[in-house]
């Protein structure tokens, strides 16, 4: 056995993480591909601003459905099989979006691609957390965020070079508009993901939950050696209910709708979006053109933001298993609140030109640009990766799939709400007020984390608590009981 760490087969674990996180790359690529295609969509399908918003947001509706059903199906047919289905949806969705001349088909394909994104968003961290050693689980799961941002950056780079090669996003390359190629390019990594999934094992925790303990033992032996595998099998079996297999109703509790540990997951999932991060990701090009930058400069700014984001995630990788998840979340909340406040200040002095277009002064434009990148840095060293790490590990085995289904649905629902309301708020309230709202959300998130979130650093998944319903919500979010 190829081992490098006390009997742990790091070569196999690294290969598994590499494959699983391709889903994260596709998550980022599919999310970022639309950034730069909005002019093409409007021209090709004659869309009003409201229709454009729905077309862009249809991905997020699919994400919500995909996250919910993937979390549930992962408990029924397995983590690996659901990821294979999501890879197929990635490929099909990319090809249709890049070729169809019918707006309805385009939206359906974008919805299907969104289901794949939603599935990958919850299953990749779930799967990694279930095969990784506890002492480095945070670092390995954080690789998912590196891949998400790498996917976003790759989409920005591809979009930039395609637009440059054609002259702009509406011009053609080989008889096909450049913006169409921006969608078609997604099929390449999706096909690689699909093939690679056939070479990784199923999650041992899923196998135990379905009564296949011997198969799980074989996987654990390959990962950790015989002695550790034999010990872990007993611990994993004890973490599941003797009465029934995992089911959706396991996340509920009388009097509070959900078990309080699920409420804690919902808090993390929704506030990660309420700080407005995907406004930068989805509307970055449009936002910077509003601030007075050209299309070419705006696409370059997106690339810079992507590179900065990747560097910031490596900060999280360095510290997440040292100082823990909760401190990183709190540091991120403070940093985002300050940088968003600076963006609010920059846009508060914006004027308009003769055509009514937004114009920032040179100093205000520089403040907005620096603040936006600082905001992206703080997000990607904290809430970006840490939220997914915690959702993948914070729930007990019995409810992990179902709790992720609920949290994933909430996360993508909040994402959709933010993306849909941004154009309306920016137009009706102005960018200064809009960013002030995001600033307030970031400030609130600090106090919510401080009060309600407990540390999970270094704990085995079988040590995660919160299955038995405690006496109060406050007690439950910091639970003291375990499933027996």
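-> sequence recovered:
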């Amino acid at each position: 056995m190829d081992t490098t760490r006390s009997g742990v087969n790091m070569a196999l674990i690294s290969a598994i993480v590499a494959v699983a996180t391709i889903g994260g790359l596709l998550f980022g690529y599919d999310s970022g591909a639309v950034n730069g295609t909005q002019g093409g969509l409007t021209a090709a399908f004659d869309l009003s601003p409201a229709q454009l918003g729905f077309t862009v947001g249809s991905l997020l509706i699919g994400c919500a459905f995909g996250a919910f059903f993937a979390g549930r199906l992962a408990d029924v047919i397995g983590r690996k099989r659901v990821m294979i289905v999501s890879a197929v949806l990635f490929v099909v969705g990319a090809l249709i979006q890049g070729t169809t001349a019918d707006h309805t088909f385009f939206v359906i394909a974008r919805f299907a691609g969104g289901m794949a994104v939603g599935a990958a968003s919850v299953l990749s961290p779930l799967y990694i957390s279930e095969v990784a050693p506890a002492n480095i689980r945070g670092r390995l799961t954080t690789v998912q965020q590196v891949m998400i941002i790498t996917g976003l950056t790759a989409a920005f780079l591809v979009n930039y070079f395609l637009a440059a090669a054609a002259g702009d996003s509406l011009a053609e390359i080989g008889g096909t508009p450049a913006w169409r190629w921006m969608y078609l390019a997604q099929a390449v990594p999706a096909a690689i993901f699909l093939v690679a999934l056939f070479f990784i094992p199923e999650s041992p925790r899923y196998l135990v939950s379905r009564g296949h303990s011997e198969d799980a033992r074989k996987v654990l032996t390959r990962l950790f050696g015989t002695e550790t595998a034999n010990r872990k099998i007993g611990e994993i079996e004890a973490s599941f209910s003797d009465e029934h297999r995992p089911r959706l109703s396991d996340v509920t509790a009388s009097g509070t709708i959900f078990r309080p540990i699920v409420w804690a997951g919902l808090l993390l999932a929704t506030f990660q979006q309420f700080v407005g991060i995907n406004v930068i990701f989805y509307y970055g090009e449009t936002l910077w053109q509003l601030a007075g930058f050209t299309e070419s400069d705006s696409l370059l700014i997106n690339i810079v933001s992507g590179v900065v984001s990747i560097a910031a995630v490596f900060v999280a990788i360095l510290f997440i298993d040292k100082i823990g998840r909760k401190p990183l979340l709190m540091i991120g909340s403070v940093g985002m609140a300050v940088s968003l406040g600076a963006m609010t200040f920059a846009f508060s002095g914006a004027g308009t030109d003769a055509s009514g277009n937004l114009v920032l002064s040179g100093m205000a434009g520089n403040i907005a640009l620096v603040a936006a990148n600082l905001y992206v840095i703080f997000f990607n060293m904290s809430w970006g990766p840490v939220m997914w790490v915690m959702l993948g590990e914070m729930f007990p085995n019995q409810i992990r799939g179902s709790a992720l289904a609920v949290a994933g649905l909430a996360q993508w629902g909040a994402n959709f709400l933010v993306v849909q309301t941004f154009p309306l708020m920016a137009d009706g309230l102005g960018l200064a007020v809009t960013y002030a709202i995001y600033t307030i959300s970031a400030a609130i998130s600090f106090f919510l984390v401080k009060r309600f979130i407990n540390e999970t650093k270094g704990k085995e998944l079988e040590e995660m608590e919160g299955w038995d319903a405690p006496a109060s919500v406050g007690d439950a979010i910091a639970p003291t009981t375990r499933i027996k």
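The longest helix spans residues 137-166.
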